[in-house]
Design a protein that fits this description.
It is a single chain. The protein is α/β, with parallel strands linked by helices. It has a single domain, classed as HUPs (Rossmann fold, 3-Layer(aba) Sandwich). It has 5 helices and 7 strands. It has helices at about 20-40, 55-70, 85-100, 110-120, 120-130, and strands at about 5, 10, 15, 40-50, 80-85, 100-105, 135. It has a 5-stranded parallel sheet with strand order 5-4-3-6-7, sandwiched between helices. The longest helix has 19 residues, at about 55-70. The protein is globular, with a radius of gyration of 14 Å. The two termini are about 25 Å apart.
Length: about 140
C-alpha cells in the first residue's frame, strides 16, 4: 500500500462527486487510480434536485453505478449514494458523513451554461469545505 499524506495527515477515504459528465468521468478515473494505488475506500455520490425529472434521476443513478462497476474491476472498495439537494451541499455533507479526507470532482458539470448564471459547483465546494479538493479536467 502506498501512503498519501495531506497537510492534515494520512488520507483514509475518497469522496467522488459524479454527474455522468465527461469531466466527472475524468475525476472517476483519477479517484479510482488514487484509491487503487493507496488501497483506499471510495464513496461515489451523485446529486439530484427535487425538480429533476425521473429521467434525470435515472441518469444520476446510472452514473454512480457505472463508477461502482468500473472501480470494482480495479479492486477498489466503493459505496455509492444518490443525494437530494444542491450539489455543493450534498457533496460537503457526504464528505463529512463518510469521513472523506479528499474530494475528487470534475471541473465542469453537465450544463456549462449554468456556470455563467450560478457559478461552478466545484468552485463552491472548494470554497466551502476544509477538506482537500482535487478538481479534474478532461
Amino acid at each position: 500500500m502506498t501512503e498519501i499524506l495531506s497537510p492534515l495527515g494520512r488520507f483514509e477515504r475518497i469522496l467522488l462527486a459524479t454527474d455522468g459528465s465527461r469531466y466527472s468521468d475524468s475525476a472517476a478515473v483519477i479517484a479510482g487510480n488514487i484509491a487503487a494505488l493507496c488501497a483506499l475506500p471510495l464513496t461515489a455520490i451523485s446529486s439530484i434536485l427535487s425538480s429533476h425529472s425521473s429521467e434525470r434521476r435515472q441518469e444520476a443513478q446510472e452514473a454512480i453505478e457505472r463508477v461502482r462497476r468500473t472501480l470494482a474491476e480495479k479492486a477498489v472498495q466503493v459505496d455509492s449514494r444518490l443525494a437530494e439537494g444542491r450539489p455543493e451541499q450534498t457533496i460537503i455533507e457526504a464528505a463529512g458523513k463518510v469521513g472523506a479526507d479528499l474530494i475528487v470532482m470534475g471541473s465542469h458539470g453537465r450544463t456549462g451554461l449554468n456556470k455563467v448564471f450560478m457559478g461552478s459547483v466545484s468552485e463552491r465546494v472548494l470554497n466551502q469545505t476544509g477538506c482537500p479538493v482535487l478538481i479534474a479536467r478532461t
